[in-house]
């Protein structure tokens, strides 16, 4: 809201052009984020290298991006975006391209400042009890999760993190009911799995951007319509959080937080929150991330991935484990996963925790009576917030946890 007013005010000052007067309901914070994402997508299309790219090419890319991102917006929002498209984005890119004109710089600078300001996710105050209550609710509505009889685990021996000894000759997942994997959200998640370069420092995606975009779009469309994500949306909306002012905003932010590419190495857009948490990556000779049971299961069952489970450091029945493994020669000393949950549940729970308790505070939740802590870290790049990592840690093994699980 404030940032839109600021951006508008800057336009008025700089161009002397009247801006359509914003109404409270429409000009909310995250919409102004759109311009930056559009710019980022264009930069990304050229891998941030504008050598030999003409202004006309840039303009075309920009317009394509704007159009692609305009779907689902109201007429008022379109009007603003069109305005930004005409007056801001083109100038930004032209400047990037030719490094020209002081006037452009003067225009660009305050706009960037405003965008940076828009970009900040506001402080969000929520009690531990509220987080716990929503976590329980998310579990309750996660109707497509695996039933206890659909997954058979074989934890084998306890291990420690200091070496790479193998305390588990067999696989962790002895059996997973294949009908489970035909449920839409698992299937759409499986479709995403070949989109990534495991190695950090290698620009994403591995497949064409068209394929990536289409698959991510389908995944988001589906997941956002599921009960866990709907619960999450309603919860944020009731709390007046700016990511949930409208379903379109929410989709935009979920996409931005989880799927937009940023850099872990060499300054290349080589990663995303989703890649880290749901896929796993190789960094500095070790495996980093990989906190999803289905991904673990898929890797374990693909010979060419050369994946080897090596024992657990902590286990909580059939709901959560902290595990040691190697993946194509690289070790993960300990990585924890929730077991049998749907991707939409993990995404909802982790998003709740990320937006409420990231950094040093942990997000204390519960899964079937077992206390869990969710730790998450943000990565700020070019003043944008990205999901760096999110993972669960087992809390105390309580009587209730024992009683509810066997
Ligand atoms: C940018 O692109 C040009 C031409 O396509 C190429 O020669 C140059 O090496 C690239 N620079 C970087 C840093 O990748
Ligand atoms: C938001 O939280 C941070 C860290 O706790 C604090 O430094 C900052 O002042 C807060 N900002 C507002 C506007 O409350
Ligand atoms: C196994 O993994 C390889 C390498 O990632 C991939 O090319 C192949 O499609 C996978 N096989 C199956 C059956 O998914």
From TrEMBL:
Assembly description: Monomer.
Naturally occurring in which organism (per UniProt): Caenorhabditis briggsae
Keyword annotations: Endonuclease, Hydrolase, Lyase, Manganese, Metal-binding, Nuclease, RNA-binding, Signal
Name this protein carries in UniProt: EndoU domain-containing protein
SUPFAM superfamilies to which the protein is assigned, alphabetical: EndoU-like
CDD domains: XendoU
Cofactor requirements of the protein: Mn(2+)
Similarity comment text for this entry: Belongs to the ENDOU family.
Domain EndoU: 127-396
GO MF, one annotated term: metal ion binding
Domain of life: Eukaryota
Residues in the signal sequence: 1-16
